[in-house]
Design goal:
Elements lengths: L1 E3 L2 E4 L4 E10 L2 E6 L3 E2 L4 H6 L4 E5 L2 H17 L2 E3 L2 E9 L2 E10 L16 H8 L17
Parallel strand pairs: 3-6
Antiparallel strand pairs: 1-2, 3-4, 3-5, 6-9, 7-8, 8-9
């Protein structure tokens, strides 16, 4: 925390990768938008901002195609530059995707920090380990 590159009170995790879910010609796709400086959150501070993708879903798209949107987000892996992203959370018109330690048609590179990526299962265990809550009923799906 402190001054960094002209910003006072800077701290990590504030850059957000943002995309918007759109539907054209009967198909869904994610259109990337410019990265934004927004609020910091625990996930981006832990993983790095690059490893979280916020996908905004317009209300009218959800009203017209709600089941399709939910099915897409619940059953799909999303590829961005050969990196595999999986959804882990939805809130206030957005879905949040995690860059996993999987690759699609690319070779991992330690120079890009690929050796720091984790699986969705490891992420879940870091954030909310199931073992201490083993007496609770949960719905858990391993998408990997």
């Amino acid at each position: 925390m402190g001054p960094w590159k002209g910003k006072d009170g800077w701290y990590g995790g504030r850059i957000q990768q943002v995309g918007r879910l759109v539907r054209a010609q009967g198909r869904f796709s994610i259109q990337l938008e410019k990265p934004e400086i927004r609020r910091s959150h625990r996930f981006s501070r832990f993983l790095g901002s690059r490893r979280i993708l916020q996908v905004r879903v317009a209300d009218d798209l959800l009203y017209k195609h709600g089941d399709g949107v939910r099915n897409l987000l619940a059953s799909s892996k999303f590829i961005l530059c050969g990196r595999v992203f999986l959804p882990f959370h939805a809130k206030e018109g957005s879905a949040y995707l995690l860059e996993t330690n999987q690759d699609f048609e690319r070779v991992p590179s330690n120079l890009d920090g690929d050796h720091f990526r984790i699986s969705l299962n490891d992420f879940t265990n870091w954030h909310n380990p199931l073992r201490p809550n083993s007496e609770q009923v949960t719905a858990y799906c391993n998408l990997e």
